[in-house]
Every structure is written in C-alpha cells, then in structure tokens.
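Supplementary Text 2. Reproducibility record for the structural model of the 178-residue chain.

All settings were left at their defaults, and a single model was retained for analysis rather than an ensemble. We include the record here because the model underlies the residue-level annotations in Supplementary Table 4.
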Amino acid sequence: TAAAVINVTLVDLAVTKEVDNPLPDEGDAVTYTVTLTNRGPDTATAVEITDVLPAGLVFSNATPSQGLFAGDVWSAGTLATGTNATLTIIATVGGGTSGSAITNTASVTGLDQEQVTTTNDLASAGLSVSHVDLTVQKTVDEAAPTVGDVITYSVVVSNAGTRSATGAEITDALPSGV
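Retained model, structure tokens:
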C-alpha cells in the first residue's frame, strides 16, 4: 500500500497593542507599541499586520523591530515559534479632537500558514483626548429684594473635563440698580 504524508504547518499569532499616554492633549505625540508573538507550533512566514491610524491622529513615524512598515502595513516577514517582534508608531493628536475617544487597532492580515486560532489576531488601544468642560452657576440669596436690602450672589465654576483649567476668567457684570 502507498501512503502519502501531508505536513500541515500551523501557527498561533497573537497581537497586543498599548499606547503610552491614554489621556493626551491636542498636539501631543503618542506612541503605540504593537507586539506580535508566534505561539507556534511552527514558524510563521509572510506575516503582515495592518494598522490604519483613525481620524484624529496624524502619522509621524514608525519603527519595526523587523521587516518594513509602509502604507499602514507592517510586513514583518518570518517569525519563529516562541519569538516576538514589535512595531512602534508615533502619531500626533490632531486639532479639534478635544474630548474625543480614539481607538487604534492592529490586526493580522497576511500569513502563509493556517492559524490554530484567530481570536487573538487583533488588538486595540484607546485614548481620550483631554479637555476642559467648564460650567457656571449663579444664585442669589434673595430672589425678590426690596430697595436697600443686601443681597448675596454666589458663583460656582465647575470643571467636568479631564484636564485642569488654567487662566479661566469669569465676567459677572451687575445689573443696573444693584
């Protein structure tokens, strides 16, 4: 009898992603680190990871530990079992994003082998662009005073934002007759 041996190569690529500053201001640089790990059992070849920066982030540069990053695609190449590779992407938080939540995702989009599982093929890192959110409340202790009464106004300023307010000024012009 004749027997044919078929060798199937399998890999388990895992992607993780982190951002160095999850609460930046507009104009700040943020650094994303994508880590790609081959959990085996075989060597992975022709590995590609796609990482498209979302609206609100402006690409500055990228540095892969191996391979090449161009056009939102990291061509990581070959990754032996039990090893990892990293991609560092630096972006600037764009104007007009104050108070926005921005999520950046990296995912496996190319590979020569079959994967054991694909549930760990993508990872995201989120950030919230810091903002100031001031509210002003004004009250008076006597709503219907008579001529000659002393009244007290109270002004309370609150910040519901994620960043401290600096240089804030409140103008409170008294009405005529007061």
